[in-house]
Please model this.
Amino acid sequence: MAGARPKPDSCSSGCRSARDLYPEWLVGNPYLGSGVEDVLLAREADTAAYSGRLGEARDFSRRAVASAERAAEKEKAASYEVDAALREALFGNAAAGRQRAAAALGLSIGRDVRYGAALALAMAGDAARAQALAEDLAKRFPEDTLVQFNYLPTLHAQLALSRNNASKAIEALQAAAPYELGDPTEAFTFLSLYPVYVRAEAYLAGHHETGAAAAEFQKILDHGGVVFNEPIGALAHLGLARASALAGDNVKSRMVYQDFLTLWKDADPDIPILKKSSSKIGKELGLCWRFRPRTCALTLLSWK
Model:
């Protein structure tokens, strides 16, 4: 879709910001044409969030939305709100996730915005609103391949997870399996591999399919050029560490958890998922105390 944000090859060894890829004068330059500044600001937001710098990401997202609105690009502005909503929901800030999803829907009710907002709402605990949006998508786009084989299976799976039904979530995602490694480039937002992430969380939910969960998280890490700097790219490290620890593979868990803590070494300390992660994994493996001693309080079993 015209206007979609460009993707570099991978974030496997850290993401570059917009200022690394473009001359510094481009960001904030009053002579830029429409549709340029907002893209760069949104890239900055994604990259900051990928490293856990959520406060910076929020600021860049606000500026990206404002820039898109000034250019009369409401769909793009809505897509940046969706990015922010998913980010907040994934990081454990449910109220902020719901607020940003509502802001997105206030700007646009397009297909991709509707899906992203619904997914954020499902992750943030508003199952009723997410269910209504999913039903509307199904009605409006009965023959849309992306909707029927990516968006709806992912939504149904996340909603099943919110009802503590991991087996139903896994079943719902079977329809997405042949397509999930594709890149939905028609969307303004980066929505790649979310079926894989939700499936990994479903396998992990019951603590009895840790090997399958680890394989799904690893799939995300192996496709950095598709995921780019989506937040699930960073959180897959954490998920793989959790799955490995629960499976008793402390060597693998130590290695992957250290990767996550190194990636988030400058992260905001009050991010809920960061507080929860630095728990039994970090205590048992002796990593949390070295990297982020203030966050070593909760146990792994208090994750959800």
